[in-house]
């Protein structure tokens, strides 16, 4: 199931140390990342901002021996790194891993959400695991009773309409939606895309709520009943009602209009989606490696425009600034972290890191007050 340095999960296949970039107020300043030598982890973290202003980083990893003597014998355990605003040294919390008397070990990239101050975190432990934190009892864990074991599938979670939704792509061959009303313990399951045959999925889905509906974006190859099997990935938008009912599925990369010429693009990897100024914006790599944006003001009509002039090395991470403007981060082919902002209707990129790393990376930005912090993975350790 696990081999050092190569774990078969979407989005990333590498282990390393956590890097933290904290850009300065000078827009032209480059930065040297700070390395958090607390854990060795698989993939980037899922990040929540706590009530104390600190950050909670959820990872599948193992603690350094100098930090903890209670490491599990299995390589990766569910961990939470708490970065407090007033202290330099982070707190390391190992989440419980006993489910129904069986010890579960995790892999891949978790997903965490906040529900009125209560944290929910989801890990892949051979099946989907749900962690809940309460102020009275601390962390508890339970298995989500999915119809089949979810193997090599990263969970992607969001909260909308009083429910938590968790998506995963088991074996890259299906798109499973798990839904639970936050007031109950009962899960409901829907396989998206049943109106077409799923041939293959590239990376993980991205999900966001827009105008009272969920939009699930994923790079996929589908075979329609009336058309031959496609040979390249397209960016699909699965629209889901907040009661969990699938509404429609649209290959937006095939139908989007182009602001600056061009033709429909093929895509790959994991998209990143935000809602900014009453519009949906989705960022994804093209088949040629460039970063492109798809945007819509109504969730129906889409247009596309280029973000990067050259190739990027991995998946992009998007976040909203304090002014509700999207800011996108990706590594270039040399492994330098690049920041993209839209200026006067066109995307502009600048290198913000002084040191290079692995090109195939996935930066995770998070807003802390008026400041953006970016977390990344250093595999050269």
Structure summary:
The chain has one helix and 31 strands. It is mainly beta and 381 residues long. The strands form seven sheets. Strands 1, 2, 3, 4, 5, 6, 30 and 31 form an eight-stranded antiparallel sheet that branches. A five-stranded mixed sheet has the order 21-25-24-23-22.
Question: Any descriptors?
Answer:
381 residues, mainly beta, 8-stranded antiparallel β-sheet, 5-stranded mixed β-sheet, 1% helix, disordered N terminus
What is the element layout, followed by pairings?
Elements (H helix, E strand, L loop, with lengths): L14 E7 L12 E9 L3 E4 L5 E9 L13 E7 L7 E4 L3 E2 L2 E2 L3 E9 L2 E7 L3 E7 L3 E6 L12 E5 L2 E6 L6 E7 L5 E6 L4 E14 L2 E11 L10 E8 L4 E6 H4 L1 E2 L8 E10 L2 E8 L3 E7 L6 E9 L5 E4 L5 E6 L5 E7 L2 E6 L12 E5 L2 E8 L3
Parallel strand pairs: 21-25
Antiparallel strand pairs: 1-2, 1-31, 2-4, 3-4, 4-5, 5-6, 7-8, 9-10, 10-11, 11-12, 13-14, 14-15, 15-16, 17-18, 18-19, 19-20, 22-23, 23-24, 24-25, 26-27, 27-28, 28-29, 30-31
């Amino acid at each position: 199931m696990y081999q050092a340095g190569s774990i078969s999960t979407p989005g990333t296949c590498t282990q390393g140390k956590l890097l933290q970039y904290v850009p300065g107020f000078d827009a032209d300043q480059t930065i040297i990342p700070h390395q958090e030598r607390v854990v060795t982890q698989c993939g980037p973290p899922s990040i929540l901002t706590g009530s104390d202003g600190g950050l909670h980083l959820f990872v599948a990893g193992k603690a350094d021996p100098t930090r903890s003597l209670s490491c599990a014998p299995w390589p990766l355990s569910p961990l939470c790194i708490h970065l407090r605003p007033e202290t330099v040294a982070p707190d390391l919390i190992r989440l419980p891993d006993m489910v129904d008397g069986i010890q579960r070990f995790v892999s891949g990239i978790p997903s965490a959400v906040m529900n009125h101050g209560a944290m929910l975190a989801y890990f892949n432990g051979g099946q989907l695991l749900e962690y809940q934190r309460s102020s009275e009892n601390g962390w508890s864990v339970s298995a989500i009773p999915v119809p089949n074991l979810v193997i090599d599938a990263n969970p992607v979670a969001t909260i909308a309409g009083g429910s938590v939704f968790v998506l995963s792509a088991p074996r890259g061959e299906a798109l499973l939606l798990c839904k639970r009303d936050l007031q109950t313990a009962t899960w409901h399951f829907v396989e998206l895309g049943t109106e077409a045959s799923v041939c293959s999925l590239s990376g993980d889905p991205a999900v966001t709520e827009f105008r009272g509906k969920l939009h699930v974006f994923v790079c996929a190859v589908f075979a329609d009943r009336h058309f031959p099997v496609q040979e390249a990935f397209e960016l699909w938008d699965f629209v889901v009602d907040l009661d969990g009912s699938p509404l429609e599925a649209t290959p937006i990369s095939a139908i989007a209009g182009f602001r600056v010429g061009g033709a429909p693009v093929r895509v790959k990897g994991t998209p990143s989606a935000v809602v900014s100024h009453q519009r949906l914006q989705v960022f994804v790599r093209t088949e040629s490696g460039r970063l492109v944006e798809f945007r819509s003001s109504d969730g129906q009509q889409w247009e596309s425009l280029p973000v990067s002039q050259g190739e990027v090395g991995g998946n992009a991470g998007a976040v909203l600034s304090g002014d509700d403007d999207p800011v996108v981060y990706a590594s270039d082919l040399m492994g330098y972290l690049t920041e993209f902002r839209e200026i006067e209707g066109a995307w502009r990129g600048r290198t913000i890191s002084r040191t290079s790393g692995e090109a195939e990376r996935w930066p995770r930005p998070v807003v802390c007050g008026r400041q953006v912090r970016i977390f990344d993975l250093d595999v050269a350790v």
